[in-house]
Amino acid sequence: MDAWLWRTRFFKTRALATAVVSKGRVRINGERVKKASRLIRPGDILTFPQGNAIRVIRMLAPAERRGSAPEAQTHYEPVPDDPDD
């Protein structure tokens, strides 16, 4: 999971992605995760801090490499806020 977060450019370094996951700050489908090696699948909802914001995204596809920002954006989509809130 840390590699995917890095490859899709949510974190500047893979070490930073690993640290955020290891501290339990990432959730997959609402479940807190502490292992950076956890597998994620297309359709999974990831929630994690990025800067001062909380990102909620749906994984669309695995990322084989760290490409350009436009390429990275093809691997996920933002999950809209709940309109009932």
Describe this structure as you would to a colleague.
The structure is a single chain. The protein is α+β, with helices and mostly antiparallel strands. The chain has one domain (2-78): RNA-binding S4 domain (Structural Genomics Hypothetical 15.5 Kd Protein In mrcA-pckA Intergenic Region, Chain A, Roll), CATH 3.10.290. Helix content is 22%, strand content 26%. It has three helices and five strands, in the order ααββββαβ. Strands 2-1-3-4-5 form a five-stranded antiparallel sheet. β1 and β2 form a beta hairpin. It is globular, with a radius of gyration of 12 Å.
Give keywords.
single chain; 85 residues; alpha+beta; Structural Genomics Hypothetical 15.5 Kd Protein In mrcA-pckA Intergenic Region, Chain A; five-stranded antiparallel beta sheet; 26% strand; globular
Tell me the β content. 25-35%
N-to-C series of helices and strands: HHEEEEHE
How many domains, in number, for the residues?
A: 1
Helical residues, percent: 10-25%
Total strands: the figure is 5
> For the terminal residues, how far apart are their CA atoms?
29 Å
| Order of neighbouring strands in the sheet with most strands | 2-1-3-4-5
Task: Based on the coordinates given, report the CATH architecture.
Answer: Roll
Task: Identify low-pLDDT runs.
Answer: none
Top CATH class: Alpha Beta
Choose one word for the global shape: globular
Secondary structural class: alpha+beta
Largest pleated sheet: 5 strands, antiparallel
CATH superfamily: RNA-binding S4 domain
Q: Over the alpha carbons, how many angstroms does the gyration radius reach?
A: 12 Å
What's the overall average pLDDT, rounded? Answer: 94
Number of helices: 3
The CATH topology comes to: Structural Genomics Hypothetical 15.5 Kd Protein In mrcA-pckA Intergenic Region, Chain A
